[in-house]
# Entry
Amino acid sequence: MGAGKTHAARALSGYSGLSMADTDEMVEIRANQSIEALFREQGEEAFRKLESQALEEVLKSDASIVSCGGGLVCNPSQRRAIYESGHVIWLDPPIESLLPILRRESHRPLLKEIGNEDFDQHVRDHFSNRKACYSLHHERFSDRIDEVALERWASMIQ
# Structure
């Protein structure tokens, strides 16, 4: 959440010329509404179901680069399918760099109900809880996404 998965996937696609897919965008197309509206009107369970369907679809597609929603890897069978399908890069920026970004982004459903005084701790807890899900990866990246990173990643997948 807020780590830059979509930005990184688009940048890598542009840099390498390889096709990309974004499971969050696929969910929004299937639902014909934003993820924020989907959470509000149908709940997280409906979102997770559509997210799972998007993952199944993208793993069968010719997309070379996939930006997955952060919660997908917390489901063991989905995590296994993702890791077996290719090279997984975990974007893991320092939490302190994410907090200002997430405070400004009002569209994130998992942060909607959090009060200002609890916000930072809630975000820290959220990422801490998900760290175990993310621990199986081929590469962990915590730096700024730049041309050096894109070049390295492109060489891994071409």
In short: The chain has a mean pLDDT of 86. The longest helix spans residues 116-134. Residues 55 and 117 are 35 Å apart (CA to CA).
